[in-house]
């Protein structure tokens, strides 16, 4: 049984695109997704909104074991037309939960110095946001911004700091919580806070 | 699907008018987009991208849950929707629709192609030798 | 220095209204319909579809009407329209072997299996103006043969191929490059070159093809086979996972037989060039096949001496939308650029004058 995606594709996708763009432009800022979108559990509607807005037949998608469900696969094939791949290294979009991230972020597609856009985007489903784990700075952030995600620990943020060190290549990360989105692109510098 | 896609939208509408009102949900409302067409080097070799074509797609779900899909060239939303409904009905009851919709459409298609072919055939050159230079 | 200037909105609005009126022409004459354009100016529609790189007869007809018959403007409109549509994917390569043939001729062999089918051609017309078309008279119906043509016409070049006299087309090596997705880089593969030529300007390709015949990179061509007809289009939607027929299109195909070539290890074989286009576009695909063959100069070990063999020259200048954009942008305001030139020229002249004064004074 195919779940419907956006209520009104043209309108909702444009709205979702605006939110995703804003999230990328203002790293660490938590935004309401606000789109009327349905998705088969355990895929969160916020993550689904990203998939249906940004993925198409030219963006191979990898699903983490927790999301690799027949209904979700069918949903993404139908609504996004996206091909599913078996290895995260082959994907342009990676959908995972905070509990089953692909093992090494550095092995995902990083782009090239000529084409840094040919890199992977990692979408992580999370329970919510709690500031205090890291301090973000860089383009789109006035001064510094305290940020944190439920269920992601110091090891993850260390990997994100390494990801930033590879700029201009590297991956971009979108955090999808129930009804909300935030992003940390590769341009954002990450400093671990003592309390983390 | 082939016959549904190749038939003119008006022909399909005429043949399938009894089915147009079949109760359904739109899984995907008719949507027009592009498909990149391809040719082959030297007709049979490696592929290359030739240029795009407009295509309209639609997906429906009947009350009993049967799904129907359609991709048809052109920009006719009505064509895509009716083709999707017919696709769903064909899965539920292939025999019924084959007789009432598919067979008449296929016959029309065949007649159209046969007419074009016989007109082309009339332009075939029949060579005949008028004079030979070997006296 | 950069000076932003505003103004002219009213003039632009009025210019567009005037354009609308001129497009409409004499209001006592009925407005031309899209059905008339699509149904009667078919070859103009085919050209706009080819160079606009979008198969949609109605859209091409609309573009021709909107462009007042300026085909390059119409092509521009089509290219702009396609950017507003999402792409669903790539179709399977067209099987021209299975073409339902409307015309099929070979200039290399008289007797070919399936025969020479002339189809709707201008060839053998006397190119005398037909004043009956100025009136309302209807033409006679086309003649019909008692039986239809055989399906699956054999290929002329394949007949030579089976004897080993013809080089074989290159086998599949992976996903073909796509000009609409990636920037044009050199050296370009034959896949990219053919895509570029397929949407290239007919006049430009015709001139290049002609130049090869006049000696600028001779390829010794024979029209091995030209065919026009309809082919079915198959596509595999991701959600279905199997191939479906989504419609049919008219195409013209040209297989050119060219200069044979051999080496110490390979017996000589004919080489070939290929052309394929939307609708009926024989001149275009013949030119395309000749230029395709010329651009293979490097691969075939020929010295690149002529314009048609220079892929950077050919591929960079074949697109008439790019070309017209760059040429026609010159009419847009360049007031500041020109002021700079003017100042420079005046200063130069003043320098020469004052040097002259000093010279006179010294004498």
Key terms:
heterotrimer, B: 135 residues, alpha+beta, 4 helices, 30% strand, C: 363 residues, 4-stranded antiparallel β-sheet, 12 helices, globular
Secondary structure blueprint with pairings:
The complex is a heterotrimer of chains A (196), B (135) and C (363).
Chain A: H1 9-25, E1 31-32, H2 45-54, E2 61-63, H3 70-79, E3 93-97, E4 121-125, E5 129-137, E6 145-149, H4 154-165, E7 172-177, E8 180-184, E9 189-192
Parallel strand pairs in A: 2-3, 3-4, 4-7
Antiparallel strand pairs in A: 1-8, 5-6, 5-9, 7-8
Helix pairs in contact in A: 1-2
Chain B: H1 2-6, H2 9-15, E1 24-40, E2 47-62, E3 67-73, H3 77-92, H4 94-121
Antiparallel strand pairs in B: 1-2, 2-3
Chain C: H1 9-24, H2 34-40, H3 42-52, E1 54-55, H4 57-66, H5 71-82, E2 87-93, E3 100-105, H6 156-162, H7 190-198, H8 202-213, E4 222-235, E5 244-261, E6 269-278, H9 282-295, H10 311-317, H11 320-328, H12 335-362
Antiparallel strand pairs in C: 3-4, 4-5, 5-6
Which stretches of chain A are poorly predicted, pLDDT < 50 over at least 5 residues?
Answer: none
Tally the beta strands of chain C: 6
How widely separated are the two ends of chain C? 42 Å
Give the proportion of residues in helices of chain A. 25-40%
CATH superfamily of chain A: Bacterial phosphonate metabolism protein PhnH
Assembly state of the chains shown: heterotrimer
Descriptive report:
Chain A is an alpha/beta fold and about 200 residues long. Chain A is built from 4 helices and 9 strands. Chain A has one domain: Rossmann fold, CATH 3.40.50. The mean pLDDT of chain A is about 95. Chain B is of the alpha+beta class and about 140 residues long. Chain B has one domain. Chain B is about 40% helix and about 30% strand. Chain B is built from 4 helices and 3 strands. In chain B, strands 1-2-3 form a 3-stranded antiparallel beta sheet. The mean pLDDT of chain B is about 90. The two termini of chain C are about 40 Å apart. The longest helix of chain C has 28 residues. Among the domains of chain C are: about 70 residues, no CATH class; about 180 residues, no CATH class. In chain C, strand 5 and strand 6 form a beta hairpin. In chain C, strands 3-4-5-6 form a 4-stranded antiparallel beta sheet. The interface between A and C is small, with 9 and 9 residues. Strand 2 of chain B pairs parallel with strand 1 of chain C, so a sheet runs across the interface.
């Amino acid at each position: 049984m195919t779940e419907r995606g956006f209520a009104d594709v043209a309108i909702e996708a444009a709205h979702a695109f605006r939110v995703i763009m804003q999230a990328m432009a203002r790293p660490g800022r938590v935004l309401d997704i606000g789109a009327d979108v349905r998705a088969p559990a355990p895929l969160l509607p916020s993550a689904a909104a990203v998939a249906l807005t940004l993925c198409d037949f030219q963006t191979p998608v990898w699903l983490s074991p927790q999301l690799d469900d027949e209904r979700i696969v069918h949903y993404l094939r139908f609504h996004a037309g996206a091909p599913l791949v078996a290895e995260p290294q082959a994907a342009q979009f990676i959908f995972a939960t905070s509990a089953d991230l692909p093992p090494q972020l550095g092995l995902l597609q990083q782009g090239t110095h000529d084409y840094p856009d040919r890199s992977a985007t990692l979408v992580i489903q999370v329970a919510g946001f709690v500031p205090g784990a890291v301090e973000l700075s860089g383009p789109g952030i006035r001064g510094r911004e305290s940020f944190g995600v439920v269920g992601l620990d110091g090891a993850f943020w260390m990997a994100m700091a390494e990801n930033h060190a590879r700029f201009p290549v590297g991956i971009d990360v979108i955090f999808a919580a129930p009804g909300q989105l935030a992003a940390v692109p590769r341009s954002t510098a990450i400093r671990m806070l003592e309390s983390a | 699907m082939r016959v549904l896609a190749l038939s003119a939208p008006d022909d399909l509408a005429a043949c399938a008018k009894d089915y147009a009102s079949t109760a359904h949900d739109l899984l995907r409302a008719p949507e027009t987009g592009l498909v990149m067409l391809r040719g082959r080097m030297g007709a049979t070799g490696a592929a290359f991208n030739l240029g795009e074509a407009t295509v309209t797609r639609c997906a429906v779900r009947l009350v009993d849950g049967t799904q129907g899909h359609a991709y048809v060239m052109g920009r006719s939303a009505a064509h895509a929707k009716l083709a999707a409904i017919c696709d769903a009905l064909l899965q539920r009851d292939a025999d019924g629709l084959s007789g009432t919709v598919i067979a008449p459409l296929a016959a029309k298609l065949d007649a159209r192609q046969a007419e074009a072919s016989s007109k082309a055939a009339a332009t075939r050159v029949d060579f005949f030798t008028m004079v030979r230079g070997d006296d | 220095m950069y000076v932003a200037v505003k103004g002219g909105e009213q003039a632009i609005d009025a210019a567009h209204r005037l354009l609308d009126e001129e497009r409409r022409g004499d209001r006592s004459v009925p407005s031309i319909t899209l059905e008339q354009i699509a149904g009667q100016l078919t070859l103009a529609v085919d050209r706009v579809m080819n160079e606009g790189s979008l198969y949609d007869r109605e859209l091409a007809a609309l573009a021709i009407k909107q462009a007042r018959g300026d085909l390059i403007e119409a092509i521009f409109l089509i290219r702009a329209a396609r950017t507003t549509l999402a792409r669903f994917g790539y179709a399977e390569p067209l099987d021209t072997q299975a073409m339902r043939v409307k015309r099929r001729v070979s200039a290399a062999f008289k007797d070919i299996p399936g025969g020479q089918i002339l189809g709707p051609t201008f060839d053998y017309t006397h190119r005398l103006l037909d004043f009956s078309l100025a009136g309302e008279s209807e033409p006679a119906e086309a003649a019909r043969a008692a039986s239809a043509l055989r399906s699956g016409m054999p290929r002329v070049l394949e007949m030579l191929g089976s004897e080993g006299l013809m080089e074989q087309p290159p086998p599949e090596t992976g996903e073909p490059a796509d000009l609409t997705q990636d920037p044009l880089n050199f050296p370009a593969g034959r896949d990219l070159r053919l895509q570029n030529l397929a949407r290239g300007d007919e006049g430009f390709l015709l001139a290049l093809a002609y130049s090869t015949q006049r000696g600028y990179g001779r390829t010794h061509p024979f029209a091995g086979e030209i065919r026009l007809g309809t082919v079915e289009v198959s596509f595999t939607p991701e959600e279905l996972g199997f191939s479906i027929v989504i419609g049919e299109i008219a195409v013209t195909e040209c297989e050119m037989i060219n200069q044979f070539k051999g080496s110490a290890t390979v017996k000589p074989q004919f080489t070939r060039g290929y052309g394929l286009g939307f609708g009926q576009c024989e001149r275009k695909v013949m030119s395309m096949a000749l230029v395709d063959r010329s651009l293979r100069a490097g691969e075939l070990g020929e010295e690149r001496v002529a314009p048609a063999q220079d892929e950077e020259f050919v591929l960079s200048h074949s697109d008439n939308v790019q070309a017209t954009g760059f040429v026609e942008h010159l009419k847009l305001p360049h007031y500041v650029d020109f002021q700079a030139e003017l100042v420079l020229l005046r200063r130069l002249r003043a320098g020469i004058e004052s040097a002259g004064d000093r010279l006179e004074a010294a004498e």
